[in-house]
Every structure is written in C-alpha cells, then in structure tokens.
Amino acid sequence: MRLSVVIPVYNAAGFLEESLRALAAFLEPRCPEHEIVAVNDGSTDDSLAILRQLESGKLRIVSLPENRGKFAAIREGMQAARGSCRIFTDADVPFERSALLYAERLVNERGFHVVIGDRTLPDSLYSEGLPWARRLTSRLFRHAVRLLVTGGIPDSQAGLKGFRADVADALFPLLTDARFGGDIELLYIALKYNLEIRRIPVRLQRQGASTVRALRHAGPMLRTVLRLRRNWRRGLYRSEALAALAAQRYWEA
C-alpha cells in the first residue's frame, strides 16, 4: 500500500459524498495502491450514514462514538492506516489533489520524514479566495506561531501533511492536543527530533465552511504553543523511535 489518505469527518454531510467520490476517482488511475481512511468524529448529521454507503475495499471507516476533536480523529486514522505514506487532509479536500501525489512521491521515493503544505510558498494559491478578516487572522496567527515555535516554517496550519509510516507510528501517539493545536504540536516534535521536513506549495480548489473560529480557537491554540516547551522538559515527547530515525538520517547524510 503506497498511500493512505486520512480524512477527519465532522458534520460534513453537505459535501462529503461529492468530495470523497472525486478524491477516489482522482487517485484510482494515478495511484492504484491507495486507501482512504475516513474517521467519523462523532458527527450528529448524516455523515456516518453517507460513509457507510461509500465504504469499499479502498474506503475504510473508523467511527468514534462521540466528538473528540480533529486531531483525536487524525490519530485514530493514522493508527488504522496501512500506507507507506500517510497524508491527512480536510474532508472537503480543499487543495488541488495533485499535491497528494507530489507528497506521496517525496515520502516514498525521496524518503522525507514529513511533507507539509505551505500556503506562503510562491507557487501556492490560497488567500485570494478568502474573506479579508480570515486572511488577516490567519496571517497574524501564523506569525505568532513562527516566532514562538516553528522558526523557519512559516505556515503550520495548512490542512495537508504527509508522513512516512514509521514516522507516523512514532509521532502521532505523542500528541496531547486533540483539537486544532495538533498541527503546531506535531511540527514542534518533528523539529525537536530534527526530522527531515519538506514544504510544498498548495493551491486552493475548494473553500468549504471552516470549522475554525478565530476568536474561539485562537486562545486554545496559543495555550498549546505555550505548553509545548513544558511538555518537552517533562519528557512527554520522549521517543526512542524518533531519535533513531533522526540518527539514521544523520549517518546516511
């Protein structure tokens, strides 16, 4: 299995079937050795019923009994995934699907530990399709996170990130943030272990309704940022597997 696409689903009935059918139709001729792992995060609409109608050998369902948060769902999906490259993206698959195949090649053929979409790269196309208020809050938050956590990675929040299977197996169980701060936390851990991270451009093809609310979620995400260093000092991110992966990269270089 070359590619697993993990998709967290919460109350997405309005677009879910169209989105998943289009994704499957795109992947099948281009990467036949793939699977889509859709994780129902305790949806209260018809999302689970739609997923059950679509379920097949290449579209598998993981269903959580209650809403636990985006990154709780992604953790479960990564654990269930079988691909040598595992990518998560949003249920509306907002970026051009070709980015999935580009990330898969970088992981499977070039051996990168982590591949992340970056909306600030010159070839990306993102902000032109968003309301000005969302553009402003997104830029301010990215700037704060870059100053406090990610340094040379200007965009931590793009909804497309890919991982080698061994990296995913070691990294995702360490995450403590079940909601929207998981993007920042996983990059912090990856940077601490000096994993090899490749940024790629992403182009917005679909602007679905965002479940992130700047005023509601900025506070919890910033608290996650401030908690990261404390977690590191307490040893919560200790991983012999990630340390071994980083050492292997060093000696191979």
> Which structural class do you get from the secondary structure elements?
alpha/beta
What strand line-up does the widest sheet have? 3-2-1-4-6-5-7
According to CATH, the fold-level topology is: Spore Coat Polysaccharide Biosynthesis Protein SpsA, Chain A
Through-space gap between termini: 27 Å
Amount of helix: 40-55%
Quantity of strands, as a count = 7
What descriptors fit this protein?
alpha/beta; 253 residues; 7-stranded mixed sheet; 16% strand
Layout: helices, strands, pairs:
Layout (H helix, E strand, L loop, with lengths): L2 E7 L6 H15 L3 E8 L5 H8 L4 E6 L5 H11 L4 E5 L8 H11 L5 E5 L13 H19 L9 E5 H7 L10 H11 L4 E5 L12 H20 L6 H13 L1
Parallel strand pairs: 1-2, 1-4, 2-3, 5-7
Antiparallel strand pairs: 4-6, 5-6
Helix pairs in contact: 1-2, 5-8, 7-8
Please give a quick description of this structure.
The chain is built from nine helices and seven strands, in the order E-H-E-H-E-H-E-H-E-H-E-H-H-E-H-H.
Protein described:
With 253 residues, the protein is α/β, with parallel strands linked by helices. The protein has one domain: Spore Coat Polysaccharide Biosynthesis Protein SpsA, Chain A (Alpha-Beta Complex), CATH 3.90.550. The chain is built from 9 helices and 7 strands; from the N terminus they run βαβαβαβαβαβααβαα. It has helices at residues 16-30, 47-54, 70-80, 98-108, 132-150, 165-171, 182-192, 214-233, 240-252, and strands at residues 3-9, 34-41, 59-64, 85-89, 114-118, 160-164, 197-201. It has a 7-stranded mixed β-sheet with strand order 3-2-1-4-6-5-7, with helices on both faces. β2 (34-41), α2 and β3 form a beta-alpha-beta unit. The longest helix has 20 residues, at 214-233. It is globular, with a radius of gyration of 17 Å. The mean pLDDT is 87.
